[in-house]
Amino acid sequence: MILISVIIPAHNEIQLLPRLLDTVDLARERFAGGRDAVEVIVADNASTDGTGELAATRGCKVVTVEKRCIAAARNGGARVASGMILCFVDADTQIAPETFDVVSVASDRSDVVAGSTGGRMERMSPGIAVTFALLFPVLFLTNIDAGVVFCRRPDFEEIGGYDEDRLIGEDVAFLLELRGVGRKRGQRLIRLKGAKAIYSTRKFDQHGDWHFLTKIMPMGLPAAIWPSLGKKLALRFWYNDDR
How many distinct structural domains can be found in the chain? Predict the structure, then answer.
């Protein structure tokens, strides 16, 4: 019986997807519930480089999502998922061997509605360190983080999944929605310990180690007021085809 569905949104990720799948395979082998209790779904988001074909050769369930939107890709993967626990992870990430055990234990807790593993960068520099230092208080106070994000299927369905009208910030909005659902039941978001993912530094490699502070944040704050600026920001940093 499938307990956990791992959903990977992927647009032209033929280079980095194999690295993630290697770590997913290891975590499946380490899972106390058994390898076959975890299914892997790749939501091929309008790729043109053979990402879907590669995923299929690795034994993944592949669903094609034509709408070029990471929220739509995540939702498309969730629609074909069989597990009662849904895990979402980006294709350029690497997960820890203990991930599925830690997620399974957390999902059995009655005081937890959803959560994430958090992570660390694959390399560090002054610019990346300062970026993380500025973001950490927000992560600490809200328990909203990235890495492997997990929730139970009924809660995902209750909030309608990820907001496909958002090109950026859909992951934060998703966890905020789940936090609202949990509060009604006395549940909370959790940042897991012992299974931190490794984040890709691809965006820092492309745009510079200070780009988040010098480019994204100056545009991101006004984007909360002017949606058109938010779209421009998303197209520049997240929806380009620099792979």
Answer: 1
Spatial separation of the C-alpha atoms in residues 65 and 75, rounded to whole Å: 9
Q: Please list, in sequence order, all residues whose beta carbon lies within 8 angstroms of the beta carbon of residue 109, skipping any fewer than 6 positions away.
A: 190
pTM of the model: 0.94
**What is the domain range of residue 46?**
4-122+145-200
The pLDDT tens digits along the chain (243 residues) read: 999 999 999 999 999 999 999 999 999 999 999 999 999 999 999 999 999 999 999 999 999 999 999 999 999 999 999 999 999 999 999 999 999 999 999 999 999 999 999 999 999 999 999 998 988 888 888 889 999 999 999 999 999 999 999 888 899 999 999 999 999 999 999 999 999 999 999 999 999 999 999 988 877 666 666 666 677 878 788 887 666
* 208 inside domain: no
Neighbours of 180 (CB within 10 A): 11
Q: Are 83 and 4 in contact (CB under 8 A)?
A: yes
